Task: structure prediction
Amino acid sequence: MKKIFNLLLCFFPFITLNAQINEIGVFLGGSNFVGDVGSTTYIAPEKLAFGVLYKWNKSPRHAYRFSYTQSTIAGNDKDSDETGRSNRGYSFENTVKELSAGLEFNFFDFNLHDYHTKVTPYIYSGLSYFLFDELHIEGGQTRKDKNSSSIAIPMTLGIKSNITPHFVIGAEVGARYTFTDNLDGSNPTNDNLKAFRFGNLNNNDWYVFSGITLTYTFGQKPCYCAE
Result:
């Protein structure tokens, strides 16, 4: 009976401590935009993107993830393969500052208490809130209207590995489907500027972050029962 009691005492701290493995780190990569101005290539990073992230590993298969990422996004019709766009010649730049929270799911067990080298693909999704500038294009010139914000749904695919007992490196591509159609100035929300709207007004904009994550792991190890 005493052995069973000791086993239970050991088992419950294992659950608690196993849920307290944390990761904190950085993201560095590039961004690109997909909308009514510029190239329609989905993965073509051209502007620097950087950020910080935190993960709380609830189990070897999933973690709650929080991040802040910032980048300039840009589009230039001259980079488009579409004749209509390349002849039009519009261009823009905007700044995106994003807060994101959601769930990261590992395809294989990724137990940070086990220091052996592990590799797993993963996916991440949740909800993002971001700041940007409302724009419009007038006479071929991009003009800022006001500061604005919106939300987006991130859809990220990546692969990661623990390169040391306390460091995890990953490579990922994350597309964001936004709830705005005016990152590029094609659909200003101000009704006084509706004469400057163009493009497909039924499709919202996308932006994509592609890059490398490097995180440091910390937290207590689980309890291993003595014989």
